[in-house]
Amino acid sequence: YRDMIINKLESVQEPGRNPIRMPIRREKELKIITLGTGAPVPDVARAGPSNAILYKRTCILVDCGRWASMRIIEAGINFNQIEGLIFTHLHQDHINAWPTIWMDSIFTRRTKSWKIWGPVGTKEVINAIKIFNQNDIEDRMTAGINIEGLETEVHEIEKGFSWEIGGIKITCALTSHIPTMPCFSFRFDTPEKSILLSGDT
């Protein structure tokens, strides 16, 4: 187990996985990368629920459970190519990496705002994280560090809502995750391919 962890750490330190110097990842076809499939219980072998949808230069994150930031780097995804973040629902194991990913925007030199979609309550969650990190953000600003990558634009969605990001049409539908409602699944469409991703259901 110790050797496995050491090998994993060494692979993350490769120059190609330096989050500041990483190239933009490109995919010819619509593709999904599973970043984590864990449960709410901490597990050293499994990251929390998170997926990356990739098409050409565009990346969309769906949920961001524990360790998602590290998994993004391991997948060779540049933080600047993430065009959106979607929450299937607001259980902690699906959103608890957001504070880390958001603040990592500073250290990965992200230059664009975050566009975020999720159920009713998402705006409140995002605003709470801003308060949580306010002292840190003020210190970075005082030090002259660029924080434009911390800007957020939040959209709360309902069933049947659809929109487009980077040539990907996205449509949401309700799924059953009692007692937590609403919980959404999402369909991602390009001219060549479709991917359906469910939340907990």
Features of this protein?
201 residues; alpha/beta; 6-stranded mixed β-sheet; 4-stranded antiparallel β-sheet; 6 helices; 10 strands; 26% helix; globular
Topology:
Blueprint: H1 2-12, E1 27-36, E2 50-56, E3 58-64, H2 68-74, E4 82-86, H3 92-95, H4 98-107, E5 114-118, H5 122-132, H6 134-142, E6 152-156, E7 162-165, E8 168-175, E9 183-189, E10 194-197
Parallel strand pairs: 3-4, 4-5, 5-6
Antiparallel strand pairs: 1-2, 2-3, 7-8, 8-9, 9-10
What would your notes on this structure say?
Helix content is 26%, strand content 31%. The two termini are 33 Å apart. The model has no long low-confidence stretch (mean pLDDT 91). The chain is globular. It has a six-stranded mixed sheet. A four-stranded antiparallel sheet has the order 7-8-9-10, with no helix packed on it. By secondary structure, it is of the alpha/beta class. The protein has six helices and ten strands, in the order αβββαβααβααβββββ. The longest helix has 11 residues, at 2-12.
Brief overview:
The chain is built from 6 helices and 10 strands.
Number of helices: 6
- The low-confidence parts are none
Give the N-to-C terminal Cα separation: 33 Å
Strand order of the largest sheet: 1-2-3-4-5-6
Radius of gyration: 17 Å
Order of helices and strands: HEEEHEHHEHHEEEEE
Helix content: 25-40%
Structural class determined from secondary elements: alpha/beta
How many beta-strand runs? Answer: 10
Sum up the overall morphology in one term.
Answer: globular
Strand content: 25-35%
Mean pLDDT level: 91
Describe the largest sheet: 6 strands, mixed
